[in-house]
């Protein structure tokens, strides 16, 4: 059915386009500040969690890395659950508040455990002759994982609801509203980076120097503060009313198309066929699919589009059961979902590259000179590079690059969603090539200095790593903001939160793919008595540059796959009627 919206403000004021756009921008400030606090709470722990598990919970490096990967992957995948709830059960407003409270409870559990020696494993030393350190177990381990996965559940709910909640505040039926929505997604990523910057600097310093109970405490306070900040805009928000499970609609259309009687009764046709265009303009409202001046219901006057024409049987043929009767809108909704899924799959490889920022790139920098003047930069603070680049680039992109592109192209968007995503994919290819070159230089320095087996810092500054962080950070800005806006604007209104959550699912699958790729590469290169590329006494003995070149080639192949999809893709929200 049509989207229903509630708004407590005066309807006359909201009918004025300029006032509406200004009000939406003001309202989204509450969402933006809440996201700064939420991402601070999340990354203050995630960026340094490996250290906590190794030093305080006595996990091995491999166990710690696996636990952190599983935690972060689960948190992002649960974004799909948060998106589903926002579309099918609650409003995005309610899902955010519930999820923030769940995350708060998880962080309270972790804070209490970190403050209480009786809830931690016994302290131990690694001196010669001392007993081996016993990793956390039993009830203490259960408490740790309850805290972690309550936190992950809350994070998933917030990631699945907050982006679409902010975007819903803009009027997509006006150019000003659509431009405002695009700016919102750009600054949403900007706010993610602001929270991350505080997390990897101030919060990490507190954790390393004052204790983990203070680190968890900062996260707990941050997520608690986000609740009243978000709720402060309550009287201004407008929210989409949930219309039931989108999965039911998808299942019904697929089943109806598969089971429709061949040669059955065909529906009457008036010759009006939905068409699509190669660039996004207009809204996703089904009224856009009616002929100009028509007052008839869209479902009564149109035929489905010719893309994925096999699904058209769900509406053109007599269904076997009345419960499987479908409308043109439902068929088109399902087509859109199926057409954006390949785009989603093509972004997983980029997120696999981004996963290197928290793994091998950190290990590279840890072998280098990390002093800046008299200050020694901890490895967990190295993500300061990409988040700083995003903070600097986001305003430049929104206020300089996009307006220039609009003037050059003469289009409303200037740069389409898929062009933006494609730019991010190209930057990830460049980043992997740069990472390989920097690794060759790092190893040459180690060889020339006779330090291949030394644990002392190499005589090369860690600022060399900043180059790959620059390109990967830029790729993240282009792709994440582009994906969020692409999924939101293309998805049917009843499925927008779930579709937007695919951006986070891509990030999670990228982390998982990175782990799988490392295992496969070591297995393939370690045969026949050869040493695997990613094994050795130290990082200096790894063939990490070869792994980076492999990532570069895979990313290039992935870009070709994306390019084919992007060229053939037709935007739903540019749909017009051909009579």
UniProtKB/TrEMBL annotation:
<feature type="transmembrane region" description="Helical">
    <location>
        <begin position="547"/>
        <end position="569"/>
    </location>
</feature>
<feature type="transmembrane region" description="Helical">
    <location>
        <begin position="91"/>
        <end position="112"/>
    </location>
</feature>
<comment type="similarity">
    <text>Belongs to the major facilitator superfamily. Proton-dependent oligopeptide transporter (POT/PTR) (TC 2.A.17) family.</text>
</comment>
<protein>
    <recommendedName>
        <fullName>Major facilitator superfamily (MFS) profile domain-containing protein</fullName>
    </recommendedName>
</protein>
<feature type="transmembrane region" description="Helical">
    <location>
        <begin position="509"/>
        <end position="527"/>
    </location>
</feature>
<dbReference type="InterPro" id="IPR000109">
    <property type="entry name" value="POT_fam"/>
</dbReference>
<feature type="transmembrane region" description="Helical">
    <location>
        <begin position="421"/>
        <end position="440"/>
    </location>
</feature>
<feature type="transmembrane region" description="Helical">
    <location>
        <begin position="336"/>
        <end position="360"/>
    </location>
</feature>
<feature type="transmembrane region" description="Helical">
    <location>
        <begin position="380"/>
        <end position="400"/>
    </location>
</feature>
<keyword id="KW-0812">Transmembrane</keyword>
<keyword id="KW-0472">Membrane</keyword>
<dbReference type="Pfam" id="PF00854">
    <property type="entry name" value="PTR2"/>
</dbReference>
<dbReference type="GO" id="GO:0022857">
    <property type="term" value="F:transmembrane transporter activity"/>
</dbReference>
<feature type="transmembrane region" description="Helical">
    <location>
        <begin position="460"/>
        <end position="488"/>
    </location>
</feature>
<feature type="transmembrane region" description="Helical">
    <location>
        <begin position="212"/>
        <end position="232"/>
    </location>
</feature>
<feature type="transmembrane region" description="Helical">
    <location>
        <begin position="185"/>
        <end position="206"/>
    </location>
</feature>
<dbReference type="InterPro" id="IPR036259">
    <property type="entry name" value="MFS_trans_sf"/>
</dbReference>
<dbReference type="GO" id="GO:0016020">
    <property type="term" value="C:membrane"/>
</dbReference>
<keyword id="KW-1133">Transmembrane helix</keyword>
<feature type="transmembrane region" description="Helical">
    <location>
        <begin position="64"/>
        <end position="85"/>
    </location>
</feature>
């Amino acid at each position: 059915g049509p989207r229903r919206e509630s708004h407590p403000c005066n309807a006359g004021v909201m009918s004025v386009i300029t006032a509406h756009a200004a009000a939406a921008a003001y309202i989204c400030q509450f969402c933006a500040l809440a996201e700064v606090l939420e991402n601070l709470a999340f990354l203050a722990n995630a960026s340094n969690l490996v250290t906590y598990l190794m030093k305080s919970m006595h996990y091995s490096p491999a166990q710690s890395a696996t636990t952190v990967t599983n935690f972060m992957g689960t948190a992002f995948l649960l974004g799909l659950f948060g998106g589903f709830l926002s579309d099918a059960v609650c409003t995005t407003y309610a899902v955010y508040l519930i999820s923030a409270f769940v995350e708060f409870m998880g962080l309270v559990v972790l804070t209490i455990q970190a403050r209480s020696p009786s809830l931690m494993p016994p302290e131990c030393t690694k001196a010669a002759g001392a007993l081996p350190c016993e990793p956390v177990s039993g009830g203490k381990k259960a408490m740790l994982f309850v805290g972690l996965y309550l936190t992950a559940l809350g994070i998933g709910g917030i990631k699945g609801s907050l982006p679409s909640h902010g975007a819903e505040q803009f009027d997509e039926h006006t150019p000003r509203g659509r431009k405002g929505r695009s700016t919102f997604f750009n600054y949403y990523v900007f706010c993610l980076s602001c929270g991350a910057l505080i997390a990897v600097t101030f919060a990490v310093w507190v954790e390393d120097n004052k204790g983990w109970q203070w680190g968890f405490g900062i996260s707990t306070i941050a997520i608690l503060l986000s609740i009243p900040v978000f709720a402060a805009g309550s009287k201004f928000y407008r929210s989409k009313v949930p219309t039931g499970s989108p999965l039911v609609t998808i299942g019904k259309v697929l089943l109806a198309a598969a089971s429709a009687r061949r040669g059955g009764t065909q529906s009457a046709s008036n010759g009006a066929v939905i068409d699509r265009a190669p660039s996004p303009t207009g809204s996703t409202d089904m009224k856009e699919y009616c002929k100009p001046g028509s007052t008839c219901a869209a479902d009564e006057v149109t035929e489905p589009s010719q893309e994925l024409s096999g699904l058209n049987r769900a509406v053109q043929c007599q269904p076997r059961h009345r419960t499987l009767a479908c409308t043109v809108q439902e068929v088109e909704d399902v087509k859109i979902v199926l057409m954006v899924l390949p785009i989603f799959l093509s972004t997983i490889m980029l997120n696999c590259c981004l996963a290197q920022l928290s793994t091998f790139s950190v290990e590279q920098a840890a072998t280098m000179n990390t002093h800046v003047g008299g200050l020694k930069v901890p490895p967990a603070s190295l993500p300061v590079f990409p988040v700083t680049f995003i903070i600097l680039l986001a305003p430049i992109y929104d206020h300089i690059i996009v307006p220039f592109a609009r003037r050059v192209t003469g289009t409303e968007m200037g740069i389409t969603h898929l062009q933006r995503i494609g730019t991010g994919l190209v930057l990830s290819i460049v980043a992997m090539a740069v990472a390989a070159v920097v690794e060759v230089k790092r190893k040459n320095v180690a060889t020339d200095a006779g330090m291949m087996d030394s644990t002392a810092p190499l005589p090369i500054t860690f600022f060399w790593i900043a180059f790959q962080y620059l390109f990967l950070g830029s790729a993240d800005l282009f792709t994440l903001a582009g994906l969020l806006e692409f999924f939101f604007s293309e998805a049917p209104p009843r499925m927008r939160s779930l579709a937007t959550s695919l951006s986070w699912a891509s990030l999670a699958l990228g982390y998982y793919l990175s782990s799988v790729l490392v295992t496969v590469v070591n297995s393939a290169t370690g045969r026949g008595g050869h040493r695997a590329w990613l094994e050795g006494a130290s990082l200096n003995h790894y063939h990490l540059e070869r792994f980076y070149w492999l990532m570069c080639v895979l990313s290039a192949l992935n870009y070709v796959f994306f390019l084919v999809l992007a060229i053939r893709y037709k935007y739903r929200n540019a749909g017009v009627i051909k009579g």
